[in-house]
Amino acid sequence: MSDSLGWIPGVLEELGQSHLLRARRQVVSLPDGWCEIDGRRLRNFSGNDYLGLAQHPRLRDAARRALDASGCGAGASPLVSGRSLWMVELEETLAWFERSDAAVVFPTGYAANLGVIPALVSAGEDDVIFCDRLNHASLVDGCRLAGVRLRVFRHTELERLEQDLRRCAGARRRVIVCDGVFSMDGDLAPLAELVRLARANDALLVVDEAHGTGVWGETGRGVCEHFQVEEEVPVRIGTLSKAVGALGGFLVGRQPLVDYLWNHARTQIYSTALPPPVCAAASEGLRVIDETPALRERLHSRCRLFRQLLAERGLAAADGAEGPIVPLLLADPQLAVELGARLIRRGYLVGTIRPPTVPRGTSRLRISLSAVHDDAALEGLAHALEEAWPETTPRRSSTAEG
């Protein structure tokens, strides 16, 4: 009998030879920015728990109470019988936190983007989506899944976007889709300019606040709040799995939009609802963010200190990076893998990012900072980077694509 999957070993071998093969490992998350791999404790600089809330006692207690009251799972999709008391509370807490009319909760941030974007346009109609080249994969996949004309732009070169918007002036709907914080580069989207372009061209602006919620803005509502354009961004998407410390995706907006998505976002309609303990933890995480601005202030103080420590050693993050995402460009995926392994041997876990997550020629270390990282952790990682950095590799580089 022929092996219909016989082509797979060859693909895996090719990935290995290109240093692009991903290996699975078991990681035990520990408090205070630590983790454990193969029985060894490491400082964790690879995750997105920006405020350290994933281990926060208030979130753990909230999840435990919901578990005791309602069990482990929701049992069905929200529209069938899975919209628990805890999910209703999460929707209401999100609307309160985001100063919005209402919210829709999705199983993940990925599901939110795959559900929301196609629902805003209609395949077969004269609709156009404008997608930033460096958007997260979930945004890109949502744009492709929509089945309408797709135009790609760069947020660093908005002249092309402006020209394309004008060329498509006759389209029925035009939708601009952009990350608020670009997850691999750490730079912020030029939202004020995007708002101006959307308004001038009668386009709908969609912003994903996945890495902005809890981190940016006076109250932690994200990059839209940071740039004071919330009222000008009608579709705001986010995730509960990063700074909020739980799991899930969401959309906030006016009530008609939320009602529409309840009936059209397929990833919400046909997915089992988030379990009650997860909903309870997410609601509590949002309350902690609102009540504890000192956490966000501490996070940004960590970011400033770490960049100073890097500069003292002749190292620098990629151009434009701000906040807790610190990308160090290496270009060659083999170098990224080797340097990541050297850091593990020195007691530090960082993200090793290679294509297709980033464009070819831009492999990197993606260091992710948290409010729970103390001075010793930051100084230790900076020292480890200085010792482990390849002698033949420049210490300052750009995110320009190769």
Features:
Aspartate Aminotransferase, domain 2; 15 helices; seven-stranded mixed β-sheet; alpha/beta; six-stranded mixed β-sheet; 41% helix; Aspartate Aminotransferase, domain 1
Descriptive report:
Helix 8 links the parallel strand 7 (173-179) and strand 8. The chain has 402 residues and is of the alpha/beta class. The protein has helices spanning 8-17, 57-70, 78-82, 85-97, 109-119, 137-145, 158-167, 191-200, 223-226, 255-264, 266-269, 276-291, 293-312, 333-345, 375-388, and strands spanning 27-30, 34-37, 40-45, 102-106, 127-132, 149-153, 173-179, 204-208, 235-239, 249-253, 325-331, 348-353, 363-368. Helix 2 packs antiparallel against helix 12. A seven-stranded mixed beta sheet has the order 4-10-9-8-7-5-6, sandwiched between helices. It has a six-stranded mixed beta sheet with strand order 1-2-3-12-13-11. The protein folds into two domains: 19-48 and 293-388, Aspartate Aminotransferase, domain 1; 57-291, Aspartate Aminotransferase, domain 2 (3-Layer(aba) Sandwich), CATH 3.40.640. It is built from 15 helices and 13 strands. 41% of the residues lie in helices and 18% in strands.
